[in-house]
Structures are given as structure tokens and as C-alpha cells.
Amino acid sequence: MTKAIPQIQRYMTTTPITVNGEQTLIFAKKMMKENGIRHLPVLEGGSLVGIISERDIDYIQNLKGVNLETEKIENAMSESPYSVETDTPLDQICQIMATDKIGSVLVTDNKKLVGIFTWIDALNAMSNLMLTRLK
After folding, report:
1. CA distances from 27 to 14, 45, 74 (A)
2. Cβ(91)–Cβ(56) under 8 Å?
3. pLDDT of 18-69, one tens digit each?
4. Domain limits at 47?
5. Residue 1: inside a domain, yes or no?
6. How many CB atoms sit inside 10 A of residue 62's CB?
């Protein structure tokens, strides 16, 4: 008898730190550094509108004429980020992340952001599953 594949909600990081599009890129960079994270969901009036990554900021920072202290997050974020519901099976998410080289997936419940699932979360899930299911 095989065990059911766990849902994403079991391994996601709950209550992710978020920003809004009107804040500056330097603010986002500071938030990432202070919290040891690389992805920030972007909310507008409580609704998910995008995601900004450390890689996005590093890329933009090297463009001529860009000032991180004045440039808004909304001008650099990825719109329509990949998101799933809390009951999505873990294996489906990991396969999509690997195939499409996605660094993070946003997790929603009734269209409200409730978590984020990153490569680090995936590795923690794999470690946990190996320790609990393969012994």
C-alpha cells in the first residue's frame, strides 16, 4: 500500500513577507537581506499582482540609468506569478518547478496569498520525506 502524496500546504512557508508595487527596489532588496529570502510576493490592495526576486533586482541594478532608491517594484516585478491552491500535490509542484526552472511558487487559498514554496522548501520536503517514508 502506498502513502498519499502530501499537499503543498504541508511544506510551504506560511505568511510570506510581501511588498507592494509602489515601494522601491532598494526597499525590496533590504527586506530580502534582513529576512534571508530571495523572493517577495507583490500585493496590491491584498490581491496578488506579481513577484520580485533578488535576481530581478540584481539584473535591473546593472542597467544604465536605473536608481534602486527611486525605481518602483512594479516596474521590475514579474506579473502573473505561478500560483497554486493549498491542496495541490507536492509532486506536481516539484515537477513544474524543475521543468520550467521556477524558483518559487505562490500558494493561495480562495485567491488569498497564504504561503510561498521555494527550492529550499522543496529540499526540506525531500529530506523530511526521505527520513519518514524511506526508513
Report:
1. 22, 19, 13
2. no
3. 999 999 999 999 999 999 999 999 999 999 999 999 999 999 999 889 999 9
4. 8-133
5. no
6. 7
